[in-house]
Design brief:
With 209 residues, the protein is of the alpha/beta class. Helices cover 36% and strands 22% of the residues. The strands form two sheets. Strands 3-2-1-4-6-5 form a six-stranded mixed β-sheet. A two-stranded antiparallel sheet has the order 7-8.
Length: 209
């Protein structure tokens, strides 16, 4: 059965480096339906397709910086007191080991692009869509205030529970962050979302409460 004919499934993916890989959470009808972890981006795409996910939210930059400086979405977040790593140019991102997780994210977006259109700022969801999000910004949006990252595991778990998710089986922060990405996908599906950035260097999507 197609996602158009059933209760939509949305997925959130936390992206790490070579040793941590990808952690994902799928939500259906507002509840956790499945979890998945892999070191391989191809396996992650296959899992999303197997679930027939309508939306895939990813905690990694969807575009490299055009200038080598922070992208507009990152600058807009910083103006609100939410700070993220500045995304470098592609040449630096692919050559510097520090940015290995961003390179992994770029690989995931590339593989997803054959099946999921990258979010372009519009709310046309007639086809499956992938998009960028950022757990710290999601947490702040859900809380309605700036939430210090110092206690992120505790605070993010609390916010997920307040959103009605059962997360007792989450054993690490990676699954928690993946769930925040999936929750954002749910908000994008409903039209209750806010964006930062532009089509040139990518949008970051967060819930709008």
């Amino acid at each position: 059965m197609s996602h158009r004919d059933s209760v939509p499934i949305v997925v959130g993916v936390d992206v790490g480096g070579a040793k941590k890989g990808f952690h994902a959470v799928a939500l259906r009808d507002g509840q956790v339906s499945e979890k998945f972890a892999t070191l391989d981006s191809t396996e992650m795409v296959e899992w999303c397709r197997k679930l027939d996910a309508s939306l895939v939210g990813i905690d990694a930059p969807c575009c490299w910086s055009c200038t080598g400086r922070a992208r507009s979405c990152e600058r807009e977040l910083a103006s609100e007191g939410i700070h993220a790593f500045a995304t470098p140019s592609q040449s630096i991102g692919e050559s510097n080991k520090f940015y290995r997780w961003m390179h992994n994210g770029a690989s995931l977006y590339q593989l997803l692009s054959f099946h999921y259109k990258l979010f372009d700022g519009t709310h046309s969801l007639s086809t499956p869509v992938s998009f960028e999000t950022f757990p710290q910004a999601v947490a702040c949006a859900l809380a309605g205030t700036i939430v210090p990252a110092k206690h992120k595991s505790r605070d993010r778990r609390r916010l997920l529970r307040e959103a009605g998710l059962s997360i007792d089986s989450f054993t690490n922060i990676d699954m928690v962050d993946a769930a925040l990405c999936a929750l954002t996908a749910q908000h994008l599906l409903k039209g209750t979302f806010k964006t930062y950035g532009d089509a040139t260097e990518g949008f970051i999507v967060v819930p709008k409460i």
